[in-house]
Write a structure and sequence with these properties.
homodimer, two-stranded antiparallel sheet, 8 helices
């Protein structure tokens, strides 16, 4: 049987609160066995861009990553957030190593092709090179990824953190039984968006299609779940969605997704 | 015989010019065998601090690293510069991995004790943990260090890049014959500060003391050479000082220091 690998992705709500982040890192450091952390950047980059007088370009309601916005992303995600998280984990005796997708050439992407909109320096992942990553995991290191990839030609690219987490999980299924944990502000997938007490504890592909049909799943949850089932379809063992509570040893309030 | 390891440190003058940096990275990527790059940040951090309206505090002509200045250093050295260098090296087929001293717990420091001046978040190195670093080198990875360390209690610290390079070289002498290359704007140690044609090609400890006595070595070169002889006294094989030319295969115009 393959060893279990936990890949945890945290979103903006945790990153933005010093207290929440500290609480999360304690829980994360206590996860047994090999593990990977993937973090987004949330509003930190926007706040930094504002301070620097860089305007976030938007086209059709979507954010465009121009050269200056990419620099801000590299500074905040790849620099400040990533290294601060690593230093905090080291203090918790968790041997963290901060990585972008360019480091050790792990995550290669292509600049998203221009169709109707040029999204700028946004990367769609084309390959994950696990050779170094496997050595890190096997020697007890805990990789901490920020949401950056590279194109192999010297260009860093902004890449969605949810996608980075799922692509890493998929790439490592050959050697590990990979479990993906998406940590966000809600306690799980809700059957009633207005009630945090309506967590759906288990969703499989069949119930997923029913929920889609009934329009129970909508808005931002749609691409999230699509990404989860994509991972499951590509041999990821299970995907869990919830808030920090999900990482407590005896927690039960969160959503587990399986095929 | 131990394998040769080259540790190259580049200063502000190379970092600040896109052209010079590109030229340097090509030469660096062509160095045979295991190698490490250490980079400072130069004026990039100061420029960023200016843009953010953060004033560089100075006491007795020395720069103080307060909380905000440290954040700027982490963003620019640890983020923008480090990850851009890594992406460029990857494009040159050099399997770079960007690191701060906190990553894999490699460089531990203590906040410089307050005597007459509180320098703020400045770290004096206390130990270098080579375990992961050796694995990186042995598996063909090329570590790229920025000038940051950590205190093991969650605090990142600003640390002089020259010192990081020499402490890494010293720590790795058990497994490698380490050569240190300090790349700066001058072609080497000059006997006449006004003439670039006056490079002293070789300095040993005996000639070093003579040069000190004659006041040939002065100003910023004093701590630089002190640091070099400290490394040589701690089993580093040789130290070379010069500009980019030093890395050319048949170059001869630079200063070599040995015991």
């Amino acid at each position: 049987m393959k060893p279990i690998l936990s890949i945890v992705k945290i979103g903006g709500n945790i990153i933005e609160s010093e207290k929440e982040l500290a609480r999360f890192l304690i829980l994360f450091s206590q996860i047994k066995g090999p593990k990977i952390l993937v973090h987004g950047g949330g509003k930190k980059a926007t706040a930094m861009a504002d301070k620097l007088g860089i305007k976030t370009a938007m086209v059709q309601g979507r954010r465009i990553t121009d050269k200056k916005s990419l620099e801000v992303a590299v500074m905040t995600y790849g620099g400040l957030l990533n290294k601060s998280i690593v230093a905090s984990l080291q203090a918790l005796k968790c041997n963290a190593i901060g990585l972008s997708g360019a480091d050790a050439g792990i995550i290669q992407a292509v600049k998203r092709p221009v169709e109707l909109v040029d999204f700028g320096f946004v990367g769609d992942i084309v390959s994950v090179h696990t050779q170094s990553l496997l050595i890190f995991l096997q020697t007890g290191l805990v990789p901490v990824f920020c949401a950056l990839s590279h194109d192999g030609k010297g260009q860093l690219l902004n890449t969605n953190a949810d996608t980075i987490a799922s692509e890493l999980a998929i790439a490592l299924t050959k050697e590990y039984t990979t479990s993906l944990y998406y940590c966000f502000e809600k306690p799980g997938v809700l059957s009633d968006i207005s009630s945090d007490n309506s967590v759906i504890s288990h969703i499989n592909k069949q119930t997923y299609f029913s929920l889609l049909k009934e329009h129970t799943i909508a808005g931002g949850m749609l691409p999230k779940l699509e990404n989860c089932f994509y991972a499951l379809d590509h041999s990821v063992h299970k995907v869990c969605i919830g808030n920090l509570q999900m990482l407590l040893p005896n927690s039960s309030t969160y959503t587990t997704l399986t095929l």
